[in-house]
Amino acid sequence: MPPDAYGYRGDVQGSSSVSDRLHDVADAVGERAEQAKVWLDSPAGRRTRTVAARAMVLAVPIVLKHPFFKTPVGRIVEVAGGVALVVKVADAIRDWEPAPATPPVD
Known about the structure:
Number of domains: 1
Helix content: 55-70%
Order of helices and strands: HHHH
Number of helices: 4
Mean pLDDT: 79
Structural class: mainly alpha
Shape: flat
Radius of gyration: 23 Å
Number of strands: 0
Largest sheet: none
């Protein structure tokens, strides 16, 4: 069979260990999180946070009609302040001001 018969083309790197791959994934996630923080602090990010917070506040009545809230546990959540919690989270998203990003240390 030709080398690409199984869908592989070129050399397949088999020397990378699972821990190396997990480290690479963790680094990529951390880098993307920093990029997201920077973007969320930009004018476009602030507008997006404001719109998301408003949408969450407006969605509360619709969410509370979900069948979960008709169960005993759902009633407890609703009575215990589920609405207040969602509004608080929406306010926190809208008002969140990230700390300035620090440059990575090599």
